[in-house]
Amino acid sequence: MLIVLPPSETKRDGGSGGALDFAALSHPRLTAKRRALTRRVSRLARTPDEMMARLKLGQKLAFEVERNRTLSTAPTMAAMDRYTGVLYEALDAPSLSPEARAFAESHVRIHSALFGLLGAGDPIPAYRLSSNARLGEPTLKVSWSSAVSKEFEAHRGELVLDLRSESYVALGPIPPTTPSYFLRVVTTGEDGAQRALNHFNKKGKGTLARAIVENGLDFADVDALIAWGRASGHHLSLAPNGELLLLV
Question: Rounded to whole angstroms, how far apart are CA atoms 222 and 32?
Fold first, then answer.
């Protein structure tokens, strides 16, 4: 089983690991693209005004330019610890047990606009690059879409739970040959109708991901995942369109 998470715009500073080592990252077939994109971003960061305009950053986020300029020399930490924000606060990776962290390292992937598909334990620096960043040609979609899809294709025998946003799905669609389910977090309104959540869907995704990681269960198929959810208080169901719904 793979659990695929989106990244977060916000990230922790620092890290106890050494400088970025592409050989230490999962999915080594992405190394060439990672190197090329890292060089592009670092070069662009030498012109702060240009980088801020392309990333649509205000003055309060000017420090992000320096993060991008020093990508190759900054300290690293595990990706699941690096990212912050609502989803990652709910996942709370730093508080996971050693056994749960080991499970996450094997079964959780994070889809980064800069590095492509990462393992949860991969050591990365802090950076700023969103899925809609305009870096010129090639675009992020051209850079990543086919390459990331091929990485998913290599897991076609596994259940894939896709917790990404639509913008990151576009940067690496999961092939039809891989049994995958896009998770949509919904709530029930006063009229009884189910509606998708926006901001608070991130908390639901993070909470579910943590529960799966803590249980350490490698679900063989979606039916087993739904049955576990019912027994553990996570209300999962399949929608007619094939999406997996999480009712909160």
Answer: 34
What's the rounded Cα separation, in Å, for the pair 223 and 171? 28
- The pLDDT tens digits for 63-106 are 999 999 999 999 999 999 999 999 999 999 999 999 999 999 99
Q: Is 237 strand, coil or helix? A: strand
Number of domains the chain contains:
1
- pLDDT confidence of residue 91: 98
pLDDT digits (tens, 9 = 90+) for 18-37: 999 999 999 999 999 999 99
Model pTM score: 0.95
Kindly report the number of other CB atoms within 10 A of residue 73's CB atom: 11
Domain that holds residue 74: 2-247
The crossing angle, in degrees rounded to 10, of helices 201-215 and 98-107 is: 110
Question: In terms of Cα–Cα distance, which of 200, 26, 38 is closest to 135?
Answer: 38
Task: Find out whether 121 and 82 touch, Cβ atoms under 8 Å.
Answer: no
Helices (H), 10-158: 31-44, 48-55, 63-69, 79-82, 86-91, 98-107, 140-153
Helices within 108-221 (DSSP H only) = 140-153, 166-169, 201-215
Q: Burial level of 193, CB count in 10 A (0-12/13-18/19+)?
A: exposed
